[in-house]
Amino acid sequence: MSALDLTSPGALTRPAEVSDATLVHRLYLKTPSYFEIISIPVPTLAEVKTDLDTAARDPRRYTELVLRPPRRQVPPDHELRDPRSGRQVVGYLDYKLDYPVAGDATVNLLLVEGDVQGRGIGSSCVRDLEVRLRGRVRRVLASIYGQNPRARRFWEALGYAFAIDAKPVLDWYAKKLV
Questions:
Q1: Is 144 exposed, middle or buried (0-12, 13-18, 19+ CB in 10 A)?
Q2: CATH code, residues 13-69+79-176
Q3: Angle (nearest 5°) at CA 174 between 63 and 11
Q4: If you write DSSP's letter for every residue of 128-155 in order, what string do you get?
């Protein structure tokens, strides 16, 4: 599915399509620690294509490439480049509207490439998403898979609080949008 029609200055994403599967797969390969934390192998290219195709068929689901924002430093050898914009791909965002209930939006995955984590890209991406969702949803939830204290700290720093215990697999954190 394409991104919401709402935009904000400095938006850091563009809709991901099935044709972007190779970029998403390469991003996954560059960030294996995430998949280790959630105890699954890195998805294959075929699995990524299937997931993007499934997302495109779901009118409530949105997948986006996170692009290097202007003025952010990225290593010069960074190899993931968006063929449309020429900007560097530094992450991937997957979220669903009206899930788990109407008026909610759930971030299923926000993955920032390991080499550029800690530079504010993920935080900027979430703040931008909140702006785009304001007025359309009452709250945003983030699902945290596995034992991932770094992800918990990330979401808490953005004002999210523990909301739903779905152990042993995941916890959900939430933030009300005003």
A1: buried
A2: 3.40.630.30
A3: 40
A4: HHHHHHBTTBSEEEEEEESS-HHHHHHH
* Closest of 15, 6, 16 to residue 134, by C-alpha: 6
Using one digit for the tens of pLDDT, what is the confidence trace for 27-44? 999 999 889 888 889 999
Parts of the chain with a pLDDT under 70: 1-11, 69-78
Q: Give the Cβ contact number of residue 178 at 10 Å.
A: 5
Q: What is the pTM of this model?
A: 0.88
Instruction: Report the length, in residues, of the chain.
Output: 178
* 104-112 and 139-145 strand pairing: parallel
Rounded to an integer, what distance in angstroms lies between the CA atom of residue 129 and that of residue 7?
9
Strand-pairing partners, residue 140, are 105, 175
How does DSSP assign 57-84, residue by residue? T-TTEEEEEEEPPTT----TT---B-TT
